[in-house]
Write a structure and sequence with these properties.
Oligomer: single chain
Number of strands: 0
Radius of gyration: 18 Å
Largest sheet: none
Order of helices and strands: HHHHHHHHHH
Length: 270
């Protein structure tokens, strides 16, 4: 399977945009006095809706179709399902090995900078480990965005927007402890901003390592794998974060709105 340079550049650009949005969260943490929790709740729920809908309706189905065409209905379906749950297992293992206190998906608020009273040494370690944890989490997300955008820029844009929203609270999570550890807003911002570079690195991995071997089975497995990763991120990170930041119903309204917008956009560009 071959892709032209224009499609590859668009895929890289969308992945870079998604990854570096951690800087938005960092700016919120360092400049705002309080977190707009209602807006953040709706946004995170919306992101989850986009990612869940596009994973099941578009990405998984495309991977499954390719695998059925190359391996037959029975074998193709089995490979697709195995790859889907393999993606879930992969991101779950990554999540499992990051301690809770350093996990970038544990909720932080802007106002927590006035509430966290712990030693600077512990905070310094937490800040570095949180940045590392974000990098580990963002690598497969970058691969997912790049893969989807390479096949369909419209779907890639929707996923990039969803992940960008998802990365905003990650930026807050890394900025809060780093700022208190160092006393430097500049260091906190740049460490948070730089941690988002793991996403374009994931895209680069996909381009350099997987592209030379791209075939129908690799493409199909990768798409099913990406669908699993995105569904797990939505259920394990986005929705719990939305609930923790605000009201239960707001997160569900955001979820349904995200699904509806994704459904309409897919129909419009069929």
């Amino acid at each position: 399977m071959e892709f032209d340079l224009h499609a590859i550049l668009i895929a890289f650009g969308l992945t870079l945009f998604a990854g570096l949005s951690t800087g938005i969260g960092s700016a919120i943490a360092l400049l705002a006095k309080r977190t707009n929790t209602r807006f953040l709740t709706l946004s995170l729920g919306f992101s989850a809706g986009v990612m869940i809908y596009v994973s099941f309706v578009e990405i998984f189905q495309k991977g499954r179709t390719v695998l059925i065409e190359s391996h037959g209905e029975l074998t193709g379906n089995w490979i697709a399902v195995a790859a889907f749950f393999g993606g879930i297992l992969l991101i779950a293992i990554i999540d499992r090995f990051i301690p809770t206190v350093e996990n970038p998906h544990e909720i932080r608020r802007v106002e927590d900078m006035d509430e966290e009273q712990v030693k600077k040494r512990k905070l310094a370690r937490m800040g570095v480990m949180t940045a590392l944890a974000i990098g580990i989490h963002n690598f497969p997300e970058g691969l997912a965005t790049f893969t989807a955008a390479l096949n369909d820029p419209g779907v890639g844009l929707a996923i990039a927007m969803a992940i960008a929203i998802h990365n905003i609270p990650e930026g807050i999570a890394v900025s809060v402890p780093v700022y208190y550890a160092t006393g430097s807003r500049k260091k906190a911002f740049w460490l948070s901003f730089s941690s988002g570079l793991a996403e374009p690195v994931g895209a680069l991995f996909g381009f350099l390592v997987l592209m030379p071997f791209m075939s129908p089975i690799v493409f199909g497995v990768l798409f099913a794998l990406v669908a699993g990763i995105m569904v797990f991120i939505s259920l394990d990170e986005l929705l719990p974060a939305a609930e923790a930041y605000g009201e239960h119903h707001l997160s569900i309204y955001g979820l349904v709105a995200g699904m509806a917008v994704m459904a309409v956009s897919l129909l419009l560009f069929m």
